[in-house]
Design a protein that fits this description.
Blueprint lengths: L15 H21 L5 H15 L6 H8 L3 H13 L3 E5 L7 E5 L1 H22 L6 H16 L4 E9 L3 H9 L1 H7 L4 E3 L7 E8 L2 E13 L3 E6 L14 E10 L2 E10 L2 H24 L2
Antiparallel strand pairs: 1-2, 3-9, 4-5, 5-6, 6-7, 7-8, 8-9
Helix pairs in contact: 1-5, 2-3, 2-5, 3-4, 8-9
């Protein structure tokens, strides 16, 4: 039997979800008032915007592409398109290559409605988020961090741990100093300012092919821990949050030595095993450099 004491609400200071909901509701309600002036709903504007974006970027606005651009499921997109067609805002015609597919176009009224509503909503957004002042960039980075961490691959992990005969400050420097990193990290040039939310890049050449791997700095606690998201250019995967991996370095002093633990998420068990083997090579190179340098 449950009672009214079986669940305790968290304090406001520990409830980012509470404030996120409040901000989102406030922003959405005020934005919807603008959209409603054009006799369209928020989902309808999203679809109109997706069509406009695809045409502007010279991509064919077939239904599947519209759904993808609008981040909306196909069934909902189809329902919204039928409503927009009835309103005279869009028209549909058979695709030349595949008659089963429909190419969607904005009518003149639809184009006018889309452009006018986009301009007003854009002005509203700029004004609404101006409340952040100089913190806007940091705010965007934090939102990106939430998306990346909560959508990246984390089911399969590889962990490599070792002890290095060197003080923690020396090991830490070897992890973040690009000149040292290049010596043991497969010749890659590492570039970042290590500010949380900043990009991190690894560039180089392998067997005559240039590459650029990328990520975002997620944590940085000097001489303790750092983590970043990671997308390899060799993966062939699209640059989306769910395709990023999570890499974490942790260092801990043990007498005059340093314990280094590297953890990486992976797409599957086989790749987790392969990652452990790669990290063994990387750390072996790091140890040789750090332990031999006085």
């Amino acid at each position: 039997m449950y009672s009214y004491n079986d669940f305790q609400f968290r304090d406001d200071v520990d409830s980012p979800d509470y404030f996120m909901w409040h901000v989102f509701s406030d922003w959405q309600n005020k934005k919807n008032k603008i959209i409603n002036n054009f006799d369209i709903t928020s989902p309808q504007m999203t679809v109109l915007t997706a069509i406009y974006w695809l045409i502007q970027h010279k991509q064919e606005p077939i239904q599947i592409a519209i759904a993808d651009a609008a981040k909306m499921d196909k069934m909902t997109t189809s329902t919204v398109l039928r409503t927009l067609e009835k309103k005279g805002l869009v028209s549909r015609a058979e695709q030349e290559k595949d008659t089963r597919a429909k190419v969607v176009s904005l009518t003149q009224v639809g184009l006018e409605t889309t452009v006018k509503s986009l301009k007003q909503v854009n002005d509203f957004n700029v004004n609404y988020f101006s409340a952040l002042g100089d913190s806007k960039v940091t705010f965007i980075h934090l939102l990106q961090q939430i998306l990346k961490i909560n959508n990246m691959q984390t089911d399969f992990k590889s962990t490599y741990q070792t002890e290095i005969a060197a003080p923690i400050e020396k090991v830490w420097d070897a992890l973040i100093n690009p000149k040292i990193v290049k010596q043991y990290f497969f010749g890659s040039s590492q570039e970042t300012d290590w500010e949380v939310g900043s990009p991190i890049l690894w560039t180089g050449e392998y067997e005559g092919t240039a590459y650029t791997d990328k990520g975002i700095v997620l944590e940085f606690f000097p001489n303790k821990k750092l983590s970043y998201s990671y997308l390899s250019s060799w993966s062939g995967l699209e640059d989306k949050p769910e395709n990023y991996l999570l890499v974490t370095y942790e260092v801990k002093p043990i007498d005059a030595r340093t314990e280094l633990t590297i953890t990486q998420s992976n797409y599957d068990e086989e790749k987790a095993k392969h990652s452990s083997e790669n990290w063994a090579v990387v750390v072996d190179g790091l140890k040789n450099i750090v332990e031999k340098t006085k």
